[in-house]
Amino acid sequence: RTTKAVAELLHTAGIEFMVLGEGETCTGDPARRAGNEFLYQMQAAQNVEVLNEIGARRIVVTCPHCLNTIAREYPQIGGDYEVVHHTVLLNQLVTENRLTMLTPEDETVTYHDPCYLGRANDEYEAPRALLEKLDVSLKEMRRCKKNGLCCGAGGAQMFKDAEKGTAEINHVRADEAMETGAEIVVAGCPFCNTMLTDGVKNREKEAQVQVLDLAEMIALAEDL
Description:
Blueprint: H1 2-12, H2 29-33, H3 37-54, E1 58-61, H4 64-73, E2 82-85, H5 86-95, E3 108-111, H6 125-134, E4 137-138, H7 169-179, E5 184-187, H8 190-202, E6 210-213, H9 214-221
Parallel strand pairs: 1-2, 3-4, 3-5, 5-6
Helix pairs in contact: 1-9, 5-6, 7-8
């Protein structure tokens, strides 16, 4: 849904772009964080070869893990690109009036800071600027920005069970989000969206609380 929303928004803004389709594989971030360096090197080398072959210069990503890996780690293997998170690009397009958002119904939202967008790459303001332009009521969680709590997916933790005797982090984070009274929990990361959705479902609150990527909210406000 996020990919579709971003594509629709780029079309609306008149941005020409291409996708790699079957030529694209995972960046290798989960493999490297899980300790499988060999698999990471294989996936990264394949991506760099394809990206260099097509002459890619600017890459838009909808995942902060991809942002961090391509921007910070691919240069070590010959992949030097400008990498932009979709919330940063969308904020730029709205600021330039290339996207004009409708005012949505009066909604209360809370924003979850993805670790690899916030703490790892110091981007906290673009997502909040977009929400401000949407004119929704933003209620910050008690742990936010540099003090934000991880959704529980990072470091390949998404693919394993929680250790015995410990609360599952995504359930804790979902509780913090719902404490704000928000009707919508917004994030900018597919890992975070999955984990927070699971946390809301675990508390049986999916009828009262939605989890959306910021691009989905903008697409709804654009009435696409």
